[in-house]
Design brief:
The chain is an alpha+beta fold and 166 residues long. It is built from 3 helices and 8 strands; from the N terminus they run E-E-E-E-H-E-E-E-H-H-E.
Length: 166
Amino acid sequence: MTAVEPKVSCVFVCHDGAGRVLLARRSAGARDEPGTWDCGAGALEFGESFETAVAREVREEYGVRPLGIEQIGVRNVLRGDPVDSHWVAVVFAVRVAPDGVTIGEPHKFDALDWFTPDALPEPLHSQCGETLGLFAAGTRGRGAGEPVAAAGACPADRGQVRRTGP
């Protein structure tokens, strides 16, 4: 029997620093749950830091460089009954410039849009609600416009990131 191990994923909620979050609608070619709205995510590659993975994935999926990256939580994602998918999801808030965002992976996403927390689209991907909950909890301690890290450069490029929590 082949051993199955959990994968590590970097999940990110892109935001504009003014209270809106960026969500992508999964296209017919998406791995799962086509037609649902979701946050961004990608697998951590061997030898890669979390912040480097997030910066890479944000550029690939949305065509922009992060202005700030903040780790906001970790989730243990078990899917299926019996479990056939297991991910350890390290969750980040990522501030981006709204005017530069574009669909970078049209085979995975067919729409992008900005939403306020009180006006989210439906249906959401099955994992999106918990991720947005972590984002909401992580931003309660500061103003919506306050940067999550030093503005003007991606903290991953400097090997730094601001972490919250215990």
